[in-house]
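Q: Structure tokens for this one, please.
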Amino acid sequence: MTGTPAIVIQNLSKRYKLKTESQMAAGEADFYALRDVSLEVQKGDMVGIIGSNGSGKSTLLKILSQITRPSEGEVRFYGTVSSILDIGTNFHPDLTGRENVTMHLRLKGVSPGEFDQRYAAIHTFSEIGSFFDQPVKIYSSGMFLRLAFSVAFHLHADILLLDEVLSVGDEGFRLKCQDMLQRLATEGRTILFVSHSRNEVLELSTKCLWLDKGMVKKYDKPAFVLAEYFSMHQDNYDQRKLVVDIDKTAGQEHIEQNGSIDLTWEADVAPGNDAFSIRELSVTGAVKGEPIYNTGPIKLKFVIDKKKKGVYVGAFFFLQDVFHQSVMVGHLLNNTEKKDLSSQWKDQVGLMEICCEIPADWLLPGKYYLFPRFGVESGEWTATSEEGIRFSEKLNFTVTPHPSYTDYIGDPGKGALRPGLAWRISPIGGD
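A: Here is the predicted structure, written as tokens:
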């Protein structure tokens, strides 16, 4: 089925006239909900559509559902279309669930030989029990969803359009619907759905469409589109969310030089408290100043100015990938020597250097968010020991693929840790 088009969209635009007012006169201004959208959806594709509110996602589905006419451009369908755009639409409120199902099956021209089988399948899948014989106007949104999905799944349309309806309803039925969608896709049905859930798009989609201000920003494999989409939004959010104000203390220009981090602070402005302060923080590759290659070690270094005797100072960090999923945790106390390394500095003051390495061939190439944390403790370390300093998600570094590296999996959504493992192949018996 690969290469067989299901939907072809060419130069699609939707323009609205907006009323504007000024001190001199009133007039109209053009607003494009969609602008020059062109793409091709293949038969059997499951396309997750993402984008900020107002980016044109719902407008696109309304045009594809033939509820709204485009201002320019055209859409060609290769098969029948069914849609669920709003919970409760396509149902007559005064009719029962049973009567609505009968009406849909009759309108779709289901043959008498298939009618009873489809009818029973819809009733069973919906799991609404005796409410099947009640007017749908008394249904909850969850019941509407159950009946709507049941009808849509069993009408055998070639193309199914869904607008954020998977987020409604209980978890059990939602998972049941996801299983059904995946089954329909393997049967060659084409599915387009709008979602704000990263996991939903990543798990279900074969393609991801990112709309931005009515235009196609990216249309590719879900892992690649989501990585860029969520990275952009996280970077924008981090501009407003800083625990340690890196811009004022060290300068933004020191972050992401060749994908690395290299921050330094003078003693009078170093972030810290009465026990210690941070003078340096860096993430580099095997050779400082060169890109951080995935085939070499990744070096983390923290320089601490310890000001108080009789306390332990420790460092740890969290690492997240571009999907903001946890990748790994590193802690000074969890070390290869199996001992408390911070104890050697307990009764000393002055500068001390804390270093660790992430081994070569561990991290997949890409962008990572580093969450450094620094703790202080006067007694024994515990999970509730005082956290002295933390940094924001604005600290990030990039792992670059080495020219000699080949990723035989290809999809970063399958996992950020891609270590070189000790594999072997041994013959068993025979000559």
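A few notes: Helices lie at 57-64, 97-107, 112-126, 141-154, 171-186, 198-204, 222-238, 246-249. The chain has two domains: 5-229, 241-403.
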